[in-house]
Amino acid sequence: MKQLRVGIIGCGEVTQIAHLPSLRQLAGQFAVTALCDVSEHVVQTVGEQWQVARRFRDERELLALDDLDAVLVANPDAYHAESALAAIAAGKHVLIEKPMCMTLREADALRAAQERAGVVVQVGYMRRYAPAFVEACRLIPELGPVRLARVHDVLGWNALFIKPTSSVVRGDDVPPDLRAEGQARRERLLDEAIGEALGEAHEGLRGVYGLLLGLSTHDLSAMRELLGMPKRVLSATQRGGLYLTATFDYGDFVCQFETGINAIPRFDAHLEVYGEQRIVRVQYDTPYVRNLPIRLSIVEANDRGGVVERCEHPAWGDPFVAEWQAFYTNVVEGRQPKTSPADFRHDLELFRDMLAFMR
């Protein structure tokens, strides 16, 4: 079995909590051979903890390595496209944390670059690789006519789950001017994305678009795989801070979408599809505590005038591990990921149409 040599750009909390443990668990398939982070403290400390000798603060030095097969892009969102394009140009396969990018322009550039280079570029939608979700996708065609669907994701701030369960090395040594540059870059890209949607920048929608990129992209991506791309957005609203709702038109039925972030340490994220005689539901838990069960529940009529409800946990394991296993298969077998750059672009298209209602 070929072992893929992986370099990591961005060694923050998702890398420390999810990706590095997953890659170590899959040591027969992957070896982490280089790290890069703008924080000297983070890259050195994480390198020591995980016994990775080659450590860089400039991604160009990492990408220049000849003995590197693949790159994880897990730096701040505003730099995802730039880092992924550089990795593709260096001939590396790429697993890029969601959101793949922030604008349609970047999405088109990434798709074109991937097609020219012929490398694998997979977007980190780990929820779509969870066994319970894969099984739900198998069951939906057996459901008969869909009558209603719901996508719900209301949860507490990430820190509420991370602080009690993990020890994360923080980059407190990053210079203030570099932090300011990153924030300014993010705001420029948010304005560009909103301008792509509305024809003009709208500062009041930056927070909305940021929430769509950071959280809703998980939900809408899973919705698209489960149900297909909706015909159109019927409505979308933003009220009361970080709470969004929308209605998607699927022709014979609608899908109701709702999301929000609050100060309660509770993770309530699920997709639910209603048929005439069966309801299928996928229930997620926080990804910041590894190996928590992602469950599939089915409610249906029995043949005696009653109801049967069963809850399945198809397999133990973590969705990040499943995601990396899929990435490995895609690379060694030359397959196109289901979470490809072209697939991700559909989320940006939905965001664009939702913003038109929130203007």
Strand content: 25-35%
- Strand line-up of the largest beta sheet: 8-9-10-7-11-12-13-14
Main sheet properties: 8 strands, mixed
Q: CATH H level of the largest domain: which superfamily?
A: Dihydrodipicolinate Reductase, domain 2
Do you know the CATH topology of the largest domain? Dihydrodipicolinate Reductase, domain 2
Low-confidence stretches: none
Described by the principal axes of the CA atoms, the overall outline is globular
Helix content: 40-55%
Question: Based on helices, strands and strand pairing, what is the structural class?
Answer: alpha/beta
Q: CA-to-CA gap between the ends? A: 52 Å
What is the count of β-strands?
14
Question: Mind telling me the C-alpha Rg?
Answer: 20 Å
Q: What order do the SSEs take from the amino end to the carboxyl end, as H and E?
A: EHEHEHEHEHEHEHHHEEEEEEEHH
Give a verbal description of the structure:
The protein is of the alpha/beta class and 359 residues long. It has two domains: 4-124 and 323-338, Rossmann fold, CATH 3.40.50; 128-317 and 345-358, Dihydrodipicolinate Reductase, domain 2, CATH 3.30.360.10. It has eleven helices and 14 strands. It has helices at residues 13-25, 40-50, 59-63, 80-89, 104-117, 131-139, 158-165, 176-198, 206-227, 319-333, 341-358; strands spanning 4-9, 30-36, 54-56, 70-73, 93-97, 121-124, 148-156, 232-239, 243-249, 254-262, 267-274, 278-284, 295-301, 307-312. An eight-stranded mixed β-sheet has the order 8-9-10-7-11-12-13-14. A hairpin with a 3-residue loop joins β11 and β12. α4 packs parallel to α5 (104-117) and α9 crosses α11 (341-358). The protein is globular, with a radius of gyration of 20 Å. The termini are far apart. The relative contact order is 0.17. The mean pLDDT is 96.
